[in-house]
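Batch manifest line 401
LIGAND: flavin-adenine dinucleotide
JOB: complex structure
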Amino acid sequence: MDTYDVIVIGSATVGGTAAAALARLGLEVALVDRRAPPQQRTDAELDPRVVAVSPGSQRLLEAIGAWSALDPQRLAPYSAMQVRAGHGRLDFTANEHGLSRLGWIAELPELDRAAAAAAQAARRVETLWPRNVKALRTTQDRVEVELDDGRLLTGHILLGADGARSRVRAHAGIAVDSHHYNQKALVAHLVTARPNPGIAWQRFGALGPLALLPLPGGRSSLVWSVHLDQAERLMRLDDEDFAAEIETHAADAPFGKIAQSGPRHALTLVRRQSRQLAAGRVALLGDAARSVHPLAGQGLNLGLGDVAVLVEVIAGWKRDRDPSAILARYGRRRRSDSILVAGGIHGFNEIRALGEPGRQAMALGFGALARLRPARDIFVNRACGLAEVGPALQQLENGRE
Ligand SMILES: Cc1cc2nc3c(=O)[nH]c(=O)nc-3n(C[C@H](O)[C@H](O)[C@H](O)COP(=O)(O)OP(=O)(O)OC[C@H]3O[C@@H](n4cnc5c(N)ncnc54)[C@H](O)[C@@H]3O)c2cc1C
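JOB STATUS: finished
ARTIFACT:
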């Protein structure tokens, strides 16, 4: 029987970061995944799955040593964000908020790899992949994870970072509310007549939110969330007609005509919110805790915000004490934050779906927000994830790993 302080199920970006961060606090961690992490990409092709990484998330990844494992050539910073709805415009620049950038666009598999590698490099983390979980048990005084190779892991705390269909969540008996958007996110990499200089551009248009995010080499990543029927239609178009559709719906984007459109992928969108983020010795992080619409680029950032808060509350835990109370504290803090952010994102999508009146209402809202400096500051602070990561960072940087 192998004994740990914390057992983490799921070693993608959120689970890998959690394991590496908790080890820096001096805890013994087991990190289990049914798959091995992705291999490092060395070819020029970028993975179609890219995500916006906030400065707060970047700092957390830096603190555990994952950020430096990313190839800078495969990252694209953005220092401007431009949002459009009807005639409404909302522009943010890093400069006006005293930041060097508003975030980075990075390949998700590369982030997964770097976080898992940071965990693997940590002395107090034992990585176990690829391993299937055969059984999970929680008792009054411990958690047990039985693996399919016969190994039995025991620990004080079980963390579920095992994604939207979390087995840990089901094991803990935590109910989840799901909402099918009846939308798919179409993603593709584009070459435009004018290179994208580092602008995250988005229009809440008639078919759905259409984002053009900067990629290395001046390319843009399209993330277009549309109704299932439209997704089917758009996926069937040839490259030329697809490019023409994007040009119609993003006519005021500052990048000109689309010269080339890469392979398209369509991802089903479901909103999920776990009713609790902690139960007894079990806590949920990342998509296991909630999954949100990609229109605000916040899913992974919320997950890394979970890690930051978890680190902060666990730092005060003594091994001989029942961790339920501190996990409950984590759960309360992150659930209210999740509901606020996920609810806001959901609300945007619902208002947009009301058609032209909805988009006009958004335009009015944009106008008001554009004039209210304190509200803009709050918005940028939250979007950049600067609130969560502050106190936790110090603890990680002082960590004993
Ligand atoms: C189109 C699209 C665009 C997005 N854009 C952004 C963006 O711009 N910014 C942003 O912040 N977020 C974005 N997101 C969301 C983001 O991708 C997710 O929130 C994030 O990747 C979730 O990470 P995770 O580590 O929680 O879960 P996952 O990546 O799902 O990882 C779960 C891990 O658990 C493992 N696992 C699962 N079950 C088991 C089991 N039973 N036993 C062992 N291991 C198990 C899996 O193998 C996997 O490694 C986007 C999402 C979509 C769909």
